Amino acid sequence: EGVIFSDDLTMKGADIVGGYVDKAKLALDAGCDMILVCNCPEGAIEVLDFMAGAAVDGSDKIARMRASQSISWDELENHPRRLDIIKKLQELDAK
Question: In total, how many domains does the chain have?
Answer without folding.
Answer: 1
